[in-house]
């Protein structure tokens, strides 16, 4: 029995030993995921079916997470107020009036309005909406308050000068 185990161990060593050549062997590194922030000014109306498609280049890795924020106002001190999508607005009786939502693929982000009668939504909510698309790499901390765009940008080490404007 000892001879069989010894034989199998030696055979295993030869089998698992890799072949080498006179050249060096290198593994191509994986692309380094970086954080990116894009800003888009979009209007939502019946002509565009209350949606905007934002094509991104370079593509989004399948492990990335995309966050979309909408500029909803300015504080008395002059700071921007951003809301993380999805964002919903309700009638007084608790039924859905309208909202904003999004989905994404590896090449684009689709931002759209939802609701029963979007034509009746105030133009303050439909026209000239400023949106920020934040691409976070895999492994982005779950401890960050994603509702706070400033905390997200700080954690990603992205400042306002690095925001890329996209014209639709």
TrEMBL record:
Top-rank taxon: Bacteria
Signal peptide: 1-18
Organism: Flavobacterium xinjiangense
The protein's name: Dihydrolipoamide dehydrogenase
Keywords: Signal
């Amino acid at each position: 029995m000892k001879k069989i185990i010894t034989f199998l161990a030696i055979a295993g060593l030869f089998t698992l030993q890799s072949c080498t050549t006179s050249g060096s062997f290198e593994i191509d590194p994986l692309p380094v995921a970086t954080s990116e922030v894009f800003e888009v000014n979009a209007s939502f109306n019946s002509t565009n079916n209350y949606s905007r498609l934002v094509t991104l280049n370079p593509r989004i890795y399948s492990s990335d997470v995309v966050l979309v924020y909408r500029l909803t106002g300015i504080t008395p001190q002059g700071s921007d107020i951003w809301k993380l999508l999805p964002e919903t607005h309700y009638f007084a009786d608790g039924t859905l009036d309208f909202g904003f939502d999004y989905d994404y693929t590896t090449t684009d982000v689709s931002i759209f309005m939802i609701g029963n009668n979007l034509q009746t939504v105030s133009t303050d909510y439909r026209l000239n909406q400023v949106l920020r698309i934040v691409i976070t790499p895999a492994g982005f901390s779950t401890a960050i308050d994603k509702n706070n765009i400033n905390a997200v940008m700080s954690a990603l080490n992205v400042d306002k000068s690095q925001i890329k404007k996209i014209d639709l």
